[in-house]
């Protein structure tokens, strides 16, 4: 019987020490552990492996992230769309998914016809583009979707939110002319950069070339690959090459982020595709009144909300910035007579889209404060006689470990400033 043994070696003791320290820190930051402690998400083996359930706190976190991206997309000229989650298999045959990606798809039969649950969103966006005639004046046309997809991952590969069978991509497809490729790729990289800076991530880029299993002619692949390289070279953006790492329909730029303890994660991607527009006969009318084929740029900034939230959770160790925290403020009334004041303040915070809760259970004050802090909430606010009389709040700031008093109006200003930090 053969036994597989894995090993790792280090050049010196200091490197081993750093590695062991990083592994210990990674264990503390494990998103599965923090997710359970904060009530963000859960899995249920009876329901199916690799299928996450989003709990109330996790749903609030996710919605905040989605809203940040919604506003950023609209400011950059994207239009939101939504496609069906299941299509006839003939569509997946035309796209090449059936031949090149079929083992990762879920297939079913309806009315004696085979259908495939979508593993990607691109076909839906192509069909929407084709619904009405397009002119060169309409390009570039940018569609985005928070698209739910399903992929048949092997059981041994599943790992918390990092590798699941159902996930939601922050997906977008840009239809443009060949001449617009470089400028659109740079706009996407600038979008990526703004998101990475918001969450204090460093990142690198990797150009992935044609894989063994691919559709399209070499000449088309060479043109698309060179387009990506030219866009990066012309703007002095460094990158490495991943030979054979492209998608089956086109080359791509993979965005690899570095978290707070030095680990690298692949999340976002930019892909240039000449093949799918040709296969689906996508056209626009050019300035000379001839019909031409647009280029399709596939693009995701986060990659998927599931994976990105897992990385964010470990990056921040659950200590999310105020603009992202599921619950941002917890009020702890000293006694029952202070609950009405706490409810009044809670309502005012809700008006500026601050999620606030009140801990008024029949526990000691110290226990309620401890329970609030275990939830990694940015602000724990104590209210008693003095606060009611002065219309103020007594703050415990988890992030700075400070305790101080503010008028409620001053507190509102402080919260608003921190909310505004979540804009890109």
TrEMBL record:
Keywords: Aminoacyl-tRNA synthetase, ATP-binding, Cytoplasm, Ligase, Metal-binding, Nucleotide-binding, Protein biosynthesis, RNA-binding, tRNA-binding, Zinc
Domain Aminoacyl-transfer RNA synthetases class-II family profile: 56-321
An annotated Gene Ontology molecular function: tRNA binding
EC number: 6.1.1.3
Keyword match Methyltransferase: no
InterPro entries linked to this entry: aa-tRNA-synt_IIb (IPR002314), aa-tRNA-synth_II (IPR006195), aa-tRNA-synth_II/BPL/LPL (IPR045864), Anticodon-bd (IPR004154), Anticodon-bd_dom_sf (IPR036621), Thr-tRNA-ligase_IIa (IPR002320), ThrRS_anticodon (IPR047246), ThrRS_core (IPR033728)
Annotated transmembrane regions: none
Catalytic activity: tRNA(Thr) + L-threonine + ATP = L-threonyl-tRNA(Thr) + AMP + diphosphate + H(+)
Name of the molecule in the record: Threonine--tRNA ligase
Gene name as annotated: thrS
